[in-house]
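[Help] Beginner question about ligand-bound structures

Sorry if this is basic. My supervisor gave me a protein sequence and a SMILES string for zinc ion and asked me to "get the holo structure". I don't really know what that means in practice or what format the answer should be in. Inputs are pasted below exactly as I got them.
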Amino acid sequence: MLRQVAEGVLIHKSEFCQSNAVVVQGRGGVLLIDPGVLGEEIACLANDLRELGQPVVAGFSTHPHWDHLLWDARLGAAPRYGTARCAASVRGLLSDAQWKARVAQFIPPDIVEQVPLDLLGLITGLPAETARIPWDGPQVRIIEHHAHAPGHAALLIEERGVLVAGDMLSDVLVPMLDFMNAADPIEDYLAALGLLEGAADGADVVVPGHGSIGGADQVRARIDQDRAYVHALRDAGVSGDPRIGPAATYDWVAGVHERQLQLLAQRSERDGTPG
Ligand SMILES: [Zn+2]
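Answer (accepted):
No worries, everyone starts somewhere. Holo just means with the ligand present. The predicted complex, written as structure tokens, is below.
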């Protein structure tokens, strides 16, 4: 079911990890950002769009993680975009003949059969420094940064006041740092939050990749909450973050937090800096 969050901007929520697919209405059809996770749900979204007479004219993946790269033939053959870094990362993945098996390892076993992998990641990289998604609709600014994954991009739909945050600014998941690729995962993440803060004035609505949609008061509150979490992680301090406390929506997020603390401790040991 599609829910409107701003004029011409609709959300389709997946049962898996409260994933949000974003539909932006343009002149001849819609832009579809991070289409969803379960095959049945993506098919449902394709149906809804067909009933609305709104073909998908462009797609966008916010970052190269499996749950943001899916597609279904029923959505049609529009160009699907990502940042150049995102596309390069996906190309690397797909060049492995065993990529499906590799990706499947990251998918929870109870849903792996329901995730349509065939069209995963068939995206076109937009040249670095591309400012806006090339399509016939409201201007969508690309805010690329180094944070959660290579080539991660948030999107600001300027005319609609909507900030699509990718896997940042969630009310249910703590910041998950990119320990694999970032030179300095903490500083990179803080810099990315600074970029989002710079865009926040233009946003009355924030749509995280996973979690609930936030209103105007939430845009800055979530940036502050993510920054406080990253500071606590950096200082190996106790975090009173509700996303990992006793009332957390997902109990496994506390495990992610513990692992991030360990990885940071290992890094500072390796670099010889005091932890
Ligand atoms: Zn992700």
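A couple of things worth pointing out: The first helix runs from residue 39 to 51. The chain has a mean pLDDT of 95. Feel free to follow up in the thread.
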